[in-house]
Amino acid sequence: MAIDPSLVAECRKWIDDDPDPQSAAELKSMLQSGDEAALRTCFQGLLEFGTAGLRGRMGPGPSQMNRAVVSRAAGGIARYMKDRGLKSVVIGRDSRHGSERFAEDSAEIFSGAGFDVFILPRPLPTPILAFALRDFSLDVGVMVTASHNPASDNGYKVYLGGSVDGIDFNGSQIIAPTDKAIFNEIKAVESVKALARKRLWKVLDEAVIRRYIHATARIVSKPRDIKVVYTAMHGVGTETFRSVFHAAGFAEPILVDAQAHPDPDFPTVAFPNPEEKGAMDLALETAKSFDADLVVANDPDADRCAIAVKDHHLGSESNWRTLRGDEVGAILGEHIASNLNRDRKEGAVLANSIVSSSILAKIAKEHQIAFTETLTGFKWLAKVKGLTFGYEEALGYAVDPGTVNDKDGISAGLLITDIAATLKESGSDLLTYLDGIWQRYGFHATKQISIRLSDMAVIPRAIDHFKHGSITEIAGFRLQGIDDLSSPTSSLPPTEGIRLWLEREALTVRLIIRPSGTEAKLKCYLEAIGARDLAERAVDEIGEKVNGMILALLS
Description:
The chain is of the alpha/beta class. The longest helix has 23 residues, at 532-554.
């Protein structure tokens, strides 16, 4: 069967303008073999900005990550910068396949456009890129990373340093409508090969890394005794985490050797995300072997942080468990709020995303601190004026936004270590501290369900099923109300997804269903507040039922 002529024409036009002979050859091979299905995967439209920048599978064509797409993105950002008088850009990268070449393509195009271009000296954590942008008072930051995505993916995060188009970015990631404005400029790039390229840039020296390390180490007051196991999940966090620990005076962390060094194939994990089942197994085994006090894990670009602790309620052979993001958020929030004096509370703000637990709002109220709720993604949390602490349940925490106006897994790992070490000195631990929070504010059970998809078309179908279907109850919980997040009644901007309120007896459950902004997933977020056993059972029962309902739509 002949391939659709319009698809053939689109493909040939792309091949002619592709700066990478390898990806052009892949497309030619698909054309010659008549593989229309493969071609359509490559030509589903140009990659757009999601929750955290451009992100997608590595491969040829406009719908995947490759040199042509990255070069076009750099060309569009350059057009956006020129229109607004922006003059400088700093570029960082992780250690994924293609990251070095993507960073170099970007530098050549920004340099060719006449901007002052700076490059971080080697693969480094995303928080260092965010730090460097403000440290040097630059206009734009670009980080080549796919964060916690599978090895097959790569991505491109964009930061702005100052106030642009009436939005005070202050070194944070772009949000709407800026992302749309930049995307329109990307689409307006007529030819990638016609973009001017130069190799005029400055590679930054180690001093900027040292400044980040020492600024981060200052969040703790003194070194304390604690034995910590650390994993970088095959990413770029190890060297920086060790240096921050050293600067803060803590003992050398025990490394998970098999995951300590950058490896773009992520050989020991199916998905290099501490949230994923099995990803923490090697770290927990190491902790048991060394009788450690705490496990700290970063995702591959070190902007997320997971924590595991001993739980003596579990069996002796499996007495370690990974804390949920909301549990870590509650611990950090209570600690930070409790340690603000009266003067520092003035103007301070705690914030989290709508899919995170409601516990932080209660902590803020108890300590007479302002609270703000935002859309999902740290690009929104970082815009909160006066942000003192912000978190989202997907293991993202800003414990020192004055240093890094973004989530930072290094500083979060250091602060939670300091809290654990302080508690250890007094004969306590993080779980006891967390129990105290539940006693003070009520027990909050939370659960996240991620359903990986091959067909993105199921997302609107699933959301419509819950929004417009005849659902009156889920797992015996009566439906009390639905909020359409795409038409919000609050001050929040519209976003795709729905929020349902369910009730049984005295227990109220919040359920949010939304697409992931970084991966082909549908995500469900549950929260129940009440007696521990009832609340935990509720989120499990509803979660299992919702998962089955969505999987049925896929079949």
